[in-house]
Amino acid sequence: MTVNVNFSGNYQELVSPELTERLQTIANKMNDGTAAGSDFLGWKNWPSTIDAELVSRIQETAKKIQQQADVLVVIGIGGSYLGSKAVLEALREPFKSATGVEIIFAGHLVSGAYLKNLMTYLDGKEVAVNVISKSGKTTEPAIAFRFLQDYMEKRYGQKAAERIYVTTDAEKGALLDVAKEKDYARFVVPDDIGGRYSVFTSVGLLPIAAAGYSIESLLSGAKRAEQELVEVHTDTNPAIQYAILRDHLYRAGYPVEIMAVFEERLTFVQEWWKQLFGESEGKEGKGIFPASVLYSTDLHSLGQYVQDGKRMLFETFVNVESVGDDLVMQQAANDSDELNYLAGKSLHEVNGAVQQATAEAHLSGGVPLITLSIPALDEDTIGYLLYFYMLSCAYSAYLLDINPFDQPGVEEYKVNMFRILNKPGY
Amino acid sequence: MTVNVNFSGNYQELVSPELTERLQTIANKMNDGTAAGSDFLGWKNWPSTIDAELVSRIQETAKKIQQQADVLVVIGIGGSYLGSKAVLEALREPFKSATGVEIIFAGHLVSGAYLKNLMTYLDGKEVAVNVISKSGKTTEPAIAFRFLQDYMEKRYGQKAAERIYVTTDAEKGALLDVAKEKDYARFVVPDDIGGRYSVFTSVGLLPIAAAGYSIESLLSGAKRAEQELVEVHTDTNPAIQYAILRDHLYRAGYPVEIMAVFEERLTFVQEWWKQLFGESEGKEGKGIFPASVLYSTDLHSLGQYVQDGKRMLFETFVNVESVGDDLVMQQAANDSDELNYLAGKSLHEVNGAVQQATAEAHLSGGVPLITLSIPALDEDTIGYLLYFYMLSCAYSAYLLDINPFDQPGVEEYKVNMFRILNKPGY
Fold first, then answer.
1. Per residue in B127-178, pLDDT tens?
2. In a domain, B418, yes or no
3. According to its UniProt record, where is this protein located (chains A, B) (predicted)?
């Protein structure tokens, strides 16, 4: 398995015949379409059934974007940007640019300074835009697209249409209408896949391909996950194991999960994970609150709280077994910093010691620990990892008797906002 | 006051004569040096007593760095980097460079790829280094400095010493010894100011000045805060008010505080705040767990959990009254995105509506709300804000009967790590 799960406690004693039966029932209901929210289970078989022609079309479009532009501005919010952002950051080596175009996100905030300065930044560069919105009416990205569409038309005139790519509903919606009218290239947000499960659709794939990464490898990792994680094997299926552990820890009085990473590249996988689990489970007064830390820097920050603060936390470490570039500690003539004892060790080995030391320290402080190990940070592994999380999240929410696929609470601020802003009809 | 506090509940009924007396006792003990951890209260009168010659010397050194270098690599972890990082990010307008040198942080992680690629990145640029460590033996920055010192000496030979700036203990320590031996310019980490309270010392000021920001304005904001917030006035002192509210909410069953910002520039003030409060309060099985969100993007992520998840959260909004650059929504010929109702409104106004709408939504979902309002994002305001947090944090921890100024839990992973790595003596 590409993801391996370890637990600081006794996992075996958490697995009862009743629990296994509940999980099997959940699996059956997802398969036969009777689970809550089954209309949004399109992500489940997506990696094995994605249209090869769609993948080719995305790759060709990505090539075209790379030829015509230096920068691709990706307009989206929530699931329309977190998936591609997570993959891009996980794959990007520090201080290196991607081989394709530079990706800049917009429409995830309402900020005049951000948009205004972005447009100034774009002035010296060739630009393309990918606007991603199922309805075309979500306020934040719609505002950003208004300004950027105007910018593109002023700058490129009629030719702007060749540089604007729309990812939206197949059949209806404001953005689809504009795309048809202006003859923008179009990609589809499937009806049966919600935003936070959309990273393997055009929503995530077009920006990732444009940046120069292999969406074939990403999808093949996801497909392997889909196939390997299909059976409810409590002994060997890491998605089932992670769901069982989370459910157990939540019920045992640990309502806060801290995802700890030791590689800065994974910090947006953390943000994606927060949306996935927080938005899927945080309903009806229930759910684990997802938080994140980057060690070892945060060992000198939230580490103190984790070690000794209020006991309501469990941690999930993401362990990356092998990193690419590395450095080896050398013997120094003057050992005033007292680091010569590390000579011959790679920094990845030292980082591994930080991880093991932290695990022991936090365990002794009363923090249960789950460890997810992955082999590397490449497209295939990240594809596998994200599918693993999506599947495990579904089981985890169903174990709480929560529909993982709706987000009723997101509407409330929108309705208030429309009223405050005097939108007609509110 | 530069920071104004608002609360969704009835603040007045939380203030009793007993509580006021407790707070006055805390203030008295801090003043006469009998409070727990009083050896580390040097930050309290620092803004009003900082040596003008030190400020001049930092400014002159910053100018020298700007003349000799394109990039200043700042090596530090925890309080040795979060303060300057928070200020730099808060002041930096999106897509704009600072007027001074580029600042890149190192030594906050153990990553060979990061350091190796950083050195490649530096190859085409003129470089200076500021290494910040009280003892010189903290593993992460010590490793980074070993590699970067070697890099600088290979690249600049004897002249490397003119480009390396050391911020360390005044009297002793490994880094001081090296600085003396090599004749590096030196700045002092005061003995009576801990890392998370050190932003107004040379630790924070040198990188901030080198980046081109006004440390005089930063310090004058902090000094005004020191003077305005000195008295225990529960009606008018925002530091006292914030401490009272946090203490009340913690005891009322809300152990998680979410600091919500609506400006991306404040996300590292959030990281600094997490260290300040988490490391000061998270002891003896007590303390509020500090978490953070960036709205409106996270309204499409953790927003669902905040609205409907497990009820243990309160929120603290940071409201910025005025931003600099902005854009105004225009009437469009084709209103297919249905945004014409916003015509004439600035994006800052729309963002204000998002904030008000979110406050109402989350309140109706059972999330108590504190709002901290600040006028702008400039040096003076940020200086005031950070001092406000530091002072309020001290009161808040003392109200929990916690010493705000130690961090016993940070040592545990270090001891384990030295053992695992076979450091002599462990």
1. 999 999 999 989 999 999 999 999 999 999 999 999 999 999 999 999 999 9
2. no
3. Cytoplasm
Tokens matching residue A414? 């929108």
Shared-domain flag, residues B207 and B227? no
If one compares A99 and B48, the residue with the highest pLDDT of the two is: B48
Does B108 sit within 8 Å of A416, measured CB to CB? no
Return d(Cα A320, Cα A373) in angstroms, integer.
Answer: 6
Q: Are residues B257 and B321 located together in one domain of the fold?
A: yes
- Per-residue pLDDT at B334 exceeds 90: no
Tell me how far apart the alpha carbons of residues B30 and B36 are, in angstroms, rounded to a whole number.
8
Bridge partners, residue B187, by sequence: B167
A-chain CB neighbours of B102 within 8 Å are: none
Q: Are residues A279 and A185 in the same domain?
A: no
The length of chain A is: 426
Same domain, B208 and B245: no
Q: Which residues of A are designated catalytic?
A: 279, 414
Q: Which residues of B touch A364 (CB under 8 A)?
A: 412
Q: How far is CA B76 from the centre of its chain?
A: 14
CB crowding A95-134: b at 16 or more within 10 Å, else e = beebebbebebbbbbbbbbbbbbbbebbeeeebbbbbbbb
> Within B163-266, where are the H helices?
174-182, 202-210, 215-228, 238-251
- B29-44 pLDDT, tens per residue? 999 999 999 999 999 9
pTM: 0.98
Per-residue pLDDT of B289-318, as tens digits, reads 999 999 999 999 999 999 999 999 999 999
pLDDT at A324 over 90: no
CATH of residue B260's domain is: 3.40.50.10490
**B236: which 2 tokens?**
């008018």
Choosing among A302, A413, A419, A421, which should be mutated to test the B contact, i.e. which has the most B CBs within 10 A? A413
Q: What secondary structure letter does DSSP report for B127?
A: E
Distance CA B257, CA A315 (A): 18
Q: How many other CB atoms sit within 10 Å of the CB of residue B107?
A: 29
Read off the pLDDT of each residue in A19-25 and give the average, rounded to a whole number: 98
**Residue in B279, B281, B315, B379 annotated catalytic:** B279
User: H/E element holding B102?
Assistant: strand B102-106
Cα of A138 to nearest chain B Cα, Å: 9
Residues A285 and A153 in one domain: no
pLDDT over 90 at B404, yes or no: yes
Residue of A nearest to B297 (CA): A108
- Does B306 lie in the same domain as B249? yes
Mean pLDDT of B323-338: 92
The answer to whether A418 touches A426, Cβ cutoff 8 Å, is yes
Are B268 and B121 within one domain? Answer: no
Best of B304, B393, B416 to disrupt the A interface by mutation (most A CBs within 10 Å)? Answer: B304
Are B282 and B199 within one domain? no
* Residue B298 DSSP label: G
- pLDDT tens per residue, range A327-361: 999 999 889 899 999 999 999 999 999 999 999 99
Predicted confidence band of residue A98 (pLDDT cuts 50, 70, 90): confident
- Alpha helices, H only, A199-328: 202-210, 215-228, 238-251, 267-281, 303-308
Q: Which two tokens stand for residue B60?
A: 């002159």
pLDDT in tens, B186-205: 999 999 999 999 999 999 99
Beta bridge pairs of residue A328? A346
Distance of CA A96 to the CA centre of its chain: 21
Nearest-10 crossing angle of helices A112-122, B347-364? 140
Residues A270 and A258: their CA atoms lie apart, in Å, by 10
Structural domain that includes position A278: 4-35+220-399
Q: Give me the residue label for tokens 């300065």.
A: A117
- What are the φ and ψ backbone dihedral angles of A37, each rounded to 5 degrees? 75, 20
Q: What ipTM was predicted for this assembly? A: 0.97
